[in-house]
């Protein structure tokens, strides 16, 4: 029976600010290796078939569910590692994990006849990947029989930032490579004293958010426990359309769906119902001890990264003296720390975070402030990614702004117009094909042109190397929403929405 990886790529980019942002959350960052967390999630199952050939597990290309605003990031990151998705399904609005999995199960059923789904968040770190794959193989055996399987992380500390799962009786399954238990229940994030009791009992595991079950089993359970979610997602899927590499839903219908997690919608009531003797699919818990982390705070990243002899984690141009147990991340400038301990210091071109590791969970207070103030540091980095490349603001004043643009080979900006600004383009490297009103011409290194206010224009890179240019904008209004698109190969909105 095929195994369909389902990657849930949501996230608001708040917990690892300022390195992550709403438009660029942590799954798109290379936090623990040269690859991003999304890319690591995609490749994590690559050896499963070879390691367990007797089980005939045919691993499919991943099905990714993501925010509409992140669609080009997902597609590009898959392309960079030479992978493709079975589907990239776009959520018009975030509605938590239960609607996302319902959506994935419906789409997976169209791609394959009732596959086993392996549900994985896109932003988890797992050190022992062979151990993880072995656990997945056992879960696949149970799931194809109709069970609902979740993984519980063997706790290493009385962690208060995770929910916990309580294990029930041991199952009599000699065909599995590890013990499996009945799932007895879920408990919320505890206080320190309660967490210490959980750790001492040996009966509680961290809730991983990883699930294995057949698509039909999930659809039956969500219809049983939350028919409102099942029916709302089904209605939205009736109007699903293809947009290049992406599948789009009816935005109004999906937005009307209630927001709920997998745990609250199905797993918790299923565990209670099974304890009461209900004739429902078995809920099974497999303990997992594979160096798992959801990297949910800067302190967690410090814990999973390689540390020097003094317990410091240094990234970028960073220096420490008489300092220990710090995390220093320098992305733009030299960063030095002297005589300090247990600090998080993260430097980016437009923001610097300084916090104690103990207060790492409170970073959300900063992002909430930035969001209330409608400041760009909450939404974007100084370098903003677009499907055609990226741009970076390198200077601005009252009536001007200077940007550095990079256009990937073969890519093109939309045919567009601005009401309030003119633009001057200076090619630094590569070749540009410029459309300005009814004229089209080429520019090469050190050549420039001028785009007047209100004139239709387009910038393309017809070459084989990246096109880099400096753009000088001048005018009375310089925000990104001053754009009208006439033609766009990426099917973006004709008018960029204002961020009010």
Q: What is the total tally of β strands?
A: 30
Poorly predicted tracts of residues: none
In what range is the share of β-strand residues?
Answer: 25-35%
Helix content: 10-25%
Instruction: Provide the gyration radius in Å.
Output: 25 Å
Q: What this model shows, in words?
A:
It is a single chain. It contains 13 helices and 30 strands. It has a six-stranded antiparallel β-sheet with strand order 20-21-22-29-24-27, with no helix packed on it. It has a five-stranded mixed beta barrel with strand order 6-9-7-8-12, surrounded by four helices. A four-stranded mixed β-sheet has the order 14-16-18-19, with helices on one face. It is an alpha/beta fold and 500 residues long. The protein folds into three domains: 3-293, Spore Coat Polysaccharide Biosynthesis Protein SpsA, Chain A (Alpha-Beta Complex), CATH 3.90.550.10; 303-367, no CATH class; 382-487, Jelly Rolls (Sandwich). The radius of gyration is 25 Å and the shape is globular. The relative contact order is 0.11. Helix 4 (97-111) packs across helix 7 (215-225) and helix 4 packs across helix 10 (262-275). A hairpin with a 2-residue loop joins strand 18 and strand 19.
């Amino acid at each position: 029976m095929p195994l369909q990886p389902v990657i849930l790529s949501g996230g608001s980019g708040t917990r690892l600010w300022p390195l992550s942002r709403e438009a660029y959350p942590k799954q798109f960052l290379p936090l623990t290796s040269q690859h991003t967390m999304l890319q690591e999630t995609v490749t994590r199952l690559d050896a499963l078939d070879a390691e367990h050939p007797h089980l005939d597990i045919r691993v499919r290309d991943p099905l990714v569910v993501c925010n509409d605003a992140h669609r080009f990031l997902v597609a590009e990151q898959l392309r960079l590692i030479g992978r493709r998705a079975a589907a990239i399904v776009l959520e018009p609005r975030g509605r938590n994990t239960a609607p996302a999995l319902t959506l994935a199960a419906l789409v997976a059923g169209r791609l394959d006849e009732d596959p086993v789904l392996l549900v994985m968040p896109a932003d988890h770190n797992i050190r022992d990947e062979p151990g993880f794959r072995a656990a997945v193989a056992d879960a696949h055996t149970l799931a194809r029989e109709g069970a609902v399987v979740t993984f519980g992380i063997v706790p290493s500390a009385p962690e208060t930032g995770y929910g916990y799962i309580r294990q029930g009786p041991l199952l009599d399954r000699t065909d599995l490579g590890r013990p499996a238990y009945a799932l007895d229940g879920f408990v919320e994030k505890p206080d320190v004293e309660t967490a210490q009791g959980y750790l001492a009992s040996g009966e509680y595991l961290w809730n991983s958010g990883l699930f294995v079950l057949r698509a039909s089993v999930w659809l039956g359970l969500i219809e049983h426990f939350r028919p409102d979610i099942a029916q709302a997602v089904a209605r939205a899927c009736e109007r699903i359309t293809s947009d290049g590499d992406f599948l789009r839903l009816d935005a109004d219908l999906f937005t009307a769906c209630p927001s709920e997690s997998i745990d609250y919608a199905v797993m918790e009531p299923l565990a209670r119902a099974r304890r009461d003797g209900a004739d429902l699919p078995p809920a099974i818990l497999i303990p997992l001890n594979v160096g798992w982390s959801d990297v949910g705070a800067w302190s967690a990243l410090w814990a999973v990264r390689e540390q020097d002899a003094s317990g410091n984690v240094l990234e970028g141009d960073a220096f420490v003296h008489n300092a220990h147990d710090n995390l220093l991340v320098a992305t733009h400038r030299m960063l030095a720390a002297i005589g300090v301990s247990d600090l998080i210091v993260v430097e980016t071109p437009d923001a610097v975070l300084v916090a104690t590791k103990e207060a790492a969970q409170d970073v959300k207070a900063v992002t909430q402030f930035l969001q209330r103030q409608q400041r760009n540091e909450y939404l974007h980095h100084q370098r903003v990614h677009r499907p055609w490349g990226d741009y970076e603001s390198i200077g601005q004043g009252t009536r001007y702004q200077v940007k550095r643009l990079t256009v990937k080979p073969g890519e093109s900006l939309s045919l567009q117009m601005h009401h309030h600004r003119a633009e001057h383009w200076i090619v630094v490297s590569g070749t540009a094909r410029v459309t300005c009103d009814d004229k089209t011409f080429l520019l090469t290194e050190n050549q420039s042109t001028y785009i007047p206010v209100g004139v239709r224009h387009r910038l393309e890179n017809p070459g084989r190397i990246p096109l880099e240019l400096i753009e000088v904008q001048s005018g009375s209004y310089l925000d990104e929403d001053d754009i009208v698109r006439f033609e766009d190969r990426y099917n973006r909105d004709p008018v960029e929405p204002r961020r009010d």
